[in-house]
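ESCALATION

Customer reports they have been waiting on this structure for their group meeting. Please prioritize. Original submission:
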Amino acid sequence: MDPALDDTGIVEAALVRRAQGGEVDAFAQLVRRYQRRAVSVAYRLLNHAEDATDVSQEAFVRAFQNLDQLADPAKFGAWLMRAVTNLALNFRRSRRTRRAASLDDTPGFTEPVAPATAALTAARPQDAGALPEELHEAITAAMEELPEKQRLALVLFSVEGLPQKQVAEILECSVELVKWNVFQARKKLKDLLAVYLS
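Update from on-call: job pushed to the front of the queue and completed.
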């Protein structure tokens, strides 16, 4: 037996097969299993609760519509989370494009300061300590500075606690590349948040 297919995996694969056979209730059970994680990942990539909910719902709709294309029912989780991350990244890109267009239309617009740089510059090392809210904002801004693959690998592995093999399946890359991206992301975050770590 595949070690990845423990009792939970077997039950999940059976639910996928039933859903592929047209059982709506089976798919509803899959939604209940993955809804929290889908919204969580989308939120960590978008930093907006309503957008995260919309993106995760869209991922479930697409998963339901394309379930017959999933060849291996045991891979449902990775397949779904790949849809969530792709939709979230597309949403981020379109949001960035819309924001840039609206800023370009603003009279007297000058080039903005990168959010992480602004947050870290504003924090003074001599402060007794960062307030939790201030630190949260700095971390969020620093995460925005990471390249997409590094941010995704870090969110899925370090924040969501997914196994490296599953992260590799979601990102469609090797486990070694996942490790490298997580390492690079942590290193960059450490540099960006150095003022809070001293």
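Sent to customer with the following note: DSSP finds ten helices and no strands in the chain.
Escalation resolved.
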